[in-house]
Automatic annotation (TrEMBL):
Domain Fibronectin type-III positions: 207-300
UniProt keyword annotations, A-Z: Immunoglobulin domain, Repeat
Boundaries of every Ig-like domain copy: 26-100
PANTHER family to which the protein is assigned, alphabetical: MICROFIBRIL-ASSOCIATED GLYCOPROTEIN 3 (PTHR14340), TITIN (PTHR14340:SF13)
Organism whose genome encodes this protein: Oryzias latipes
Keyword Ion transport tagged: no
SUPFAM superfamilies per UniProt: Fibronectin type III, Immunoglobulin
InterPro entries xref list: FN3_dom, FN3_sf, Ig-like_dom, Ig-like_dom_sf, Ig-like_fold, Ig_I-set, Ig_sub, Ig_sub2
Name assigned to this protein: Fibronectin type-III domain-containing protein
Range of residues in the leader sequence: none
Short name of any one Pfam family annotated for the protein: I-set
Lineage: Eukaryota, Metazoa, Chordata, Craniata, Vertebrata
Amino acid sequence: MAVNQSGRSVPRESKPIVVRDSTSLPEFDLRGVCKKTVIAKAGSDIKIEIPVFGRPRPTISWQKNNTALKLTQRINVETTAATAVLNISECTRDDSGVYTILGKNIVGSVTDNIIVKVHDVPGPPKGPIQIVEISRTFCMFSWETPENNGGVPITNYVVEIRETTSQTWTELSSTVIRTMVLAENEYGIGLPIESIESVKVSEKPHSPKNVEVSEIKKDSMVLNWETPSETGGSPIIGYIIEKHDKEGVRWTRCNRQTVIGLTFKVTGLLESHIYEFRVAAENAVGIGEPSSPTVFHKAI
Protein backbone atom coordinates (compact mmCIF):
# COMPACT_ATOMS: atom_id res chain seq x y z
CA MET A 1 0.00 0.00 0.00
CA ALA A 2 1.06 3.64 -0.42
CA VAL A 3 1.11 6.22 2.40
CA ASN A 4 0.91 10.10 2.33
CA GLN A 5 -0.32 12.91 4.63
CA SER A 6 -3.88 11.98 3.96
CA GLY A 7 -3.41 8.33 4.88
CA ARG A 8 -2.92 4.91 3.37
CA SER A 9 -4.08 3.65 0.03
CA VAL A 10 -5.92 0.44 -0.61
CA PRO A 11 -3.39 -2.40 -0.41
CA ARG A 12 -2.48 -4.45 -3.44
CA GLU A 13 -1.39 -8.02 -3.06
CA SER A 14 1.70 -9.27 -4.99
CA LYS A 15 2.23 -12.62 -6.63
CA PRO A 16 3.81 -15.35 -4.43
CA ILE A 17 7.62 -15.09 -4.09
CA VAL A 18 9.88 -18.10 -3.29
CA VAL A 19 12.95 -17.23 -1.19
CA ARG A 20 15.95 -19.49 -1.91
CA ASP A 21 19.40 -19.69 -0.27
CA SER A 22 22.36 -18.81 -2.53
CA THR A 23 24.37 -21.80 -3.76
CA SER A 24 27.96 -22.26 -4.89
CA LEU A 25 30.26 -25.00 -6.11
CA PRO A 26 32.57 -26.57 -3.50
CA GLU A 27 36.03 -25.00 -3.30
CA PHE A 28 39.27 -25.84 -1.43
CA ASP A 29 41.84 -23.31 -0.30
CA LEU A 30 45.24 -25.00 -0.63
CA ARG A 31 47.35 -21.87 -0.28
CA GLY A 32 48.57 -23.18 3.07
CA VAL A 33 50.09 -26.27 1.43
CA CYS A 34 53.26 -25.21 -0.41
CA LYS A 35 53.14 -26.46 -4.00
CA LYS A 36 50.44 -28.89 -2.84
CA THR A 37 53.21 -31.05 -1.35
CA VAL A 38 53.79 -32.16 2.24
CA ILE A 39 57.23 -33.54 3.19
CA ALA A 40 57.69 -35.30 6.53
CA LYS A 41 60.30 -37.40 8.28
CA ALA A 42 59.36 -40.96 9.11
CA GLY A 43 57.99 -41.23 12.64
CA SER A 44 56.58 -37.71 12.76
CA ASP A 45 52.89 -36.73 12.70
CA ILE A 46 51.23 -35.17 9.64
CA LYS A 47 48.24 -32.84 9.86
CA ILE A 48 46.78 -31.31 6.70
CA GLU A 49 44.01 -28.78 7.38
CA ILE A 50 42.19 -27.42 4.33
CA PRO A 51 39.58 -24.60 4.39
CA VAL A 52 36.39 -25.69 2.54
CA PHE A 53 33.80 -23.42 0.88
CA GLY A 54 30.52 -24.04 -0.89
CA ARG A 55 26.76 -23.72 -0.35
CA PRO A 56 25.23 -25.93 0.73
CA ARG A 57 28.03 -27.31 2.86
CA PRO A 58 29.87 -29.96 0.75
CA THR A 59 30.30 -33.53 1.86
CA ILE A 60 33.99 -34.50 1.97
CA SER A 61 35.70 -37.78 1.10
CA TRP A 62 39.36 -38.81 0.65
CA GLN A 63 41.31 -41.10 -1.63
CA LYS A 64 44.92 -42.27 -1.74
CA ASN A 65 46.44 -43.17 -5.10
CA ASN A 66 42.95 -43.26 -6.69
CA THR A 67 41.61 -45.69 -4.08
CA ALA A 68 39.30 -44.90 -1.15
CA LEU A 69 41.47 -43.94 1.84
CA LYS A 70 41.62 -46.72 4.40
CA LEU A 71 41.12 -45.29 7.89
CA THR A 72 43.12 -46.84 10.73
CA GLN A 73 44.22 -45.97 14.25
CA ARG A 74 47.05 -43.97 12.66
CA ILE A 75 45.15 -42.43 9.75
CA ASN A 76 41.89 -40.52 10.27
CA VAL A 77 39.99 -37.57 8.80
CA GLU A 78 37.88 -34.79 10.33
CA THR A 79 35.32 -32.39 8.91
CA THR A 80 34.59 -29.19 10.81
CA ALA A 81 32.27 -26.30 9.94
CA ALA A 82 34.97 -24.64 7.85
CA THR A 83 37.75 -27.18 7.22
CA ALA A 84 38.63 -30.72 6.21
CA VAL A 85 41.52 -32.33 8.15
CA LEU A 86 43.73 -35.32 7.35
CA ASN A 87 45.75 -36.74 10.27
CA ILE A 88 48.55 -39.33 9.95
CA SER A 89 50.30 -40.36 13.17
CA GLU A 90 53.88 -41.71 13.20
CA CYS A 91 54.08 -41.68 9.43
CA THR A 92 56.05 -44.27 7.48
CA ARG A 93 57.37 -44.52 3.93
CA ASP A 94 54.21 -46.45 3.02
CA ASP A 95 52.17 -43.32 3.76
CA SER A 96 53.78 -41.54 0.79
CA GLY A 97 51.45 -41.01 -2.16
CA VAL A 98 48.87 -38.77 -3.82
CA TYR A 99 45.97 -37.90 -1.52
CA THR A 100 42.81 -36.66 -3.24
CA ILE A 101 40.16 -34.62 -1.45
CA LEU A 102 36.66 -34.69 -2.99
CA GLY A 103 33.92 -32.18 -2.22
CA LYS A 104 30.31 -32.59 -3.40
CA ASN A 105 27.02 -30.68 -3.03
CA ILE A 106 23.88 -30.09 -5.12
CA VAL A 107 25.75 -27.68 -7.39
CA GLY A 108 28.45 -30.13 -8.36
CA SER A 109 31.69 -31.78 -7.23
CA VAL A 110 35.39 -30.84 -7.25
CA THR A 111 38.64 -32.64 -6.45
CA ASP A 112 42.17 -31.58 -5.65
CA ASN A 113 45.41 -33.48 -5.01
CA ILE A 114 48.04 -33.23 -2.30
CA ILE A 115 51.34 -35.10 -2.59
CA VAL A 116 52.70 -36.58 0.65
CA LYS A 117 56.39 -37.54 0.75
CA VAL A 118 57.72 -39.38 3.78
CA HIS A 119 61.52 -39.50 3.95
CA ASP A 120 63.46 -42.06 5.93
CA VAL A 121 66.83 -43.79 6.10
CA PRO A 122 67.41 -46.03 3.07
CA GLY A 123 66.67 -49.73 2.91
CA PRO A 124 69.44 -52.35 2.63
CA PRO A 125 71.50 -52.50 -0.58
CA LYS A 126 70.52 -55.25 -2.99
CA GLY A 127 72.65 -58.35 -2.82
CA PRO A 128 74.30 -60.64 -2.85
CA ILE A 129 77.59 -58.90 -2.10
CA GLN A 130 80.10 -59.92 -4.74
CA ILE A 131 83.83 -60.40 -4.12
CA VAL A 132 85.48 -58.68 -7.10
CA GLU A 133 89.16 -58.79 -6.22
CA ILE A 134 91.39 -59.66 -3.27
CA SER A 135 95.05 -58.86 -2.66
CA ARG A 136 97.34 -58.62 0.33
CA THR A 137 96.51 -54.90 0.71
CA PHE A 138 92.84 -54.61 -0.29
CA CYS A 139 89.58 -56.44 -0.89
CA MET A 140 87.11 -55.14 -3.51
CA PHE A 141 83.37 -55.75 -3.17
CA SER A 142 80.35 -54.85 -5.30
CA TRP A 143 76.61 -54.54 -4.65
CA GLU A 144 73.51 -52.88 -6.10
CA THR A 145 71.68 -49.78 -4.92
CA PRO A 146 68.77 -50.22 -2.45
CA GLU A 147 65.29 -50.66 -3.84
CA ASN A 148 64.18 -48.06 -1.27
CA ASN A 149 66.45 -44.99 -1.09
CA GLY A 150 64.37 -43.40 1.68
CA GLY A 151 62.92 -40.83 -0.70
CA VAL A 152 66.16 -38.88 -1.12
CA PRO A 153 69.44 -39.61 -2.97
CA ILE A 154 71.97 -42.02 -1.44
CA THR A 155 74.97 -39.99 -0.30
CA ASN A 156 77.29 -42.72 0.95
CA TYR A 157 77.80 -46.41 1.67
CA VAL A 158 79.27 -47.80 4.88
CA VAL A 159 81.23 -51.05 4.54
CA GLU A 160 82.02 -53.08 7.65
CA ILE A 161 83.57 -56.50 8.16
CA ARG A 162 83.95 -58.97 10.98
CA GLU A 163 85.95 -62.10 11.61
CA THR A 164 83.84 -65.22 11.29
CA THR A 165 84.75 -66.09 14.87
CA SER A 166 83.56 -62.71 16.19
CA GLN A 167 80.30 -60.80 16.44
CA THR A 168 82.04 -57.42 16.29
CA TRP A 169 82.11 -55.50 13.01
CA THR A 170 85.40 -53.66 12.42
CA GLU A 171 87.96 -52.58 9.84
CA LEU A 172 89.48 -54.94 7.29
CA SER A 173 92.35 -57.18 8.45
CA SER A 174 94.22 -60.25 7.22
CA THR A 175 91.83 -62.99 8.30
CA VAL A 176 88.62 -64.79 7.40
CA ILE A 177 85.86 -62.19 7.12
CA ARG A 178 82.17 -61.55 6.47
CA THR A 179 81.17 -58.28 4.82
CA MET A 180 78.26 -55.93 5.58
CA VAL A 181 77.14 -52.92 3.51
CA LEU A 182 74.78 -50.13 4.63
CA ALA A 183 73.41 -47.24 2.55
CA GLU A 184 73.26 -43.67 3.89
CA ASN A 185 71.25 -40.57 2.99
CA GLU A 186 70.61 -37.23 4.70
CA TYR A 187 68.32 -38.92 7.22
CA GLY A 188 70.88 -41.48 8.40
CA ILE A 189 72.20 -44.99 7.82
CA GLY A 190 69.77 -47.72 6.79
CA LEU A 191 69.57 -51.45 7.35
CA PRO A 192 72.54 -53.63 6.33
CA ILE A 193 72.98 -56.41 3.84
CA GLU A 194 75.49 -59.10 4.84
CA SER A 195 77.59 -61.27 2.55
CA ILE A 196 76.39 -64.85 2.23
CA GLU A 197 79.83 -66.45 2.16
CA SER A 198 82.98 -65.93 4.21
CA VAL A 199 86.11 -64.96 2.37
CA LYS A 200 89.79 -65.29 3.23
CA VAL A 201 91.96 -62.29 2.51
CA SER A 202 95.75 -61.94 2.35
CA GLU A 203 96.37 -65.68 2.24
CA LYS A 204 98.27 -67.82 -0.24
CA PRO A 205 96.56 -70.90 -1.71
CA HIS A 206 96.93 -74.37 -0.29
CA SER A 207 98.95 -77.03 -2.11
CA PRO A 208 97.59 -78.77 -5.20
CA LYS A 209 96.37 -82.32 -4.63
CA ASN A 210 97.10 -85.74 -6.16
CA VAL A 211 100.13 -84.92 -8.34
CA GLU A 212 100.74 -87.85 -10.68
CA VAL A 213 103.35 -88.69 -13.36
CA SER A 214 102.50 -90.32 -16.71
CA GLU A 215 103.79 -90.74 -20.27
CA ILE A 216 107.36 -91.37 -19.07
CA LYS A 217 109.99 -91.07 -21.80
CA LYS A 218 113.78 -90.73 -21.93
CA ASP A 219 113.63 -86.92 -22.07
CA SER A 220 110.12 -86.00 -20.85
CA MET A 221 107.28 -86.81 -18.46
CA VAL A 222 103.69 -85.49 -18.07
CA LEU A 223 102.34 -84.23 -14.75
CA ASN A 224 98.67 -84.05 -13.74
CA TRP A 225 97.18 -82.66 -10.51
CA GLU A 226 94.01 -81.36 -8.87
CA THR A 227 93.19 -77.86 -7.63
CA PRO A 228 93.91 -76.97 -3.99
CA SER A 229 91.18 -77.48 -1.42
CA GLU A 230 91.52 -73.78 -0.44
CA THR A 231 92.33 -70.95 -2.83
CA GLY A 232 93.15 -68.42 -0.09
CA GLY A 233 90.09 -66.34 -0.92
CA SER A 234 91.43 -65.31 -4.32
CA PRO A 235 91.18 -67.11 -7.67
CA ILE A 236 94.08 -69.35 -8.69
CA ILE A 237 96.01 -67.59 -11.47
CA GLY A 238 98.39 -70.46 -12.29
CA TYR A 239 100.75 -73.21 -11.15
CA ILE A 240 104.52 -73.55 -10.66
CA ILE A 241 106.13 -76.93 -11.47
CA GLU A 242 109.48 -77.96 -10.02
CA LYS A 243 111.72 -81.05 -10.48
CA HIS A 244 114.48 -82.61 -8.40
CA ASP A 245 117.17 -84.84 -9.88
CA LYS A 246 118.03 -87.62 -7.41
CA GLU A 247 121.72 -87.00 -8.10
CA GLY A 248 121.37 -83.34 -7.07
CA VAL A 249 120.17 -81.36 -4.03
CA ARG A 250 118.25 -78.44 -5.53
CA TRP A 251 114.72 -78.08 -6.82
CA THR A 252 114.58 -76.34 -10.20
CA ARG A 253 111.64 -74.71 -11.92
CA CYS A 254 110.31 -76.47 -15.01
CA ASN A 255 107.96 -73.83 -16.50
CA ARG A 256 109.07 -70.36 -17.57
CA GLN A 257 105.48 -69.06 -17.69
CA THR A 258 102.73 -69.78 -15.20
CA VAL A 259 100.71 -72.86 -16.11
CA ILE A 260 96.98 -72.21 -16.26
CA GLY A 261 95.65 -75.76 -16.59
CA LEU A 262 96.04 -78.91 -14.50
CA THR A 263 98.56 -80.70 -16.69
CA PHE A 264 102.10 -79.98 -17.88
CA LYS A 265 104.71 -81.78 -19.95
CA VAL A 266 108.20 -81.56 -18.44
CA THR A 267 110.86 -81.68 -21.17
CA GLY A 268 114.68 -81.55 -21.21
CA LEU A 269 115.14 -84.48 -18.88
CA LEU A 270 118.34 -86.55 -18.97
CA GLU A 271 118.01 -90.16 -20.00
CA SER A 272 118.35 -92.69 -17.15
CA HIS A 273 118.22 -89.92 -14.53
CA ILE A 274 115.68 -90.29 -11.73
CA TYR A 275 113.33 -87.40 -10.93
CA GLU A 276 110.65 -86.35 -8.46
CA PHE A 277 108.23 -83.46 -9.00
CA ARG A 278 106.08 -81.04 -7.03
CA VAL A 279 103.48 -78.36 -7.92
CA ALA A 280 102.59 -75.07 -6.20
CA ALA A 281 99.55 -72.86 -6.81
CA GLU A 282 99.61 -69.08 -7.16
CA ASN A 283 96.96 -66.40 -6.49
CA ALA A 284 96.99 -62.60 -6.21
CA VAL A 285 98.70 -62.84 -2.81
CA GLY A 286 101.55 -65.08 -3.94
CA ILE A 287 102.76 -68.65 -4.41
CA GLY A 288 101.58 -71.18 -1.86
CA GLU A 289 103.36 -74.15 -0.38
CA PRO A 290 104.24 -76.86 -2.92
CA SER A 291 102.59 -80.23 -2.96
CA SER A 292 104.22 -83.30 -1.50
CA PRO A 293 106.84 -84.65 -3.93
CA THR A 294 105.88 -87.48 -6.24
CA VAL A 295 107.66 -90.77 -6.06
CA PHE A 296 110.87 -90.95 -8.09
CA HIS A 297 110.56 -91.85 -11.76
CA LYS A 298 113.37 -92.82 -14.14
CA ALA A 299 113.56 -91.20 -17.56
CA ILE A 300 113.70 -94.14 -20.00
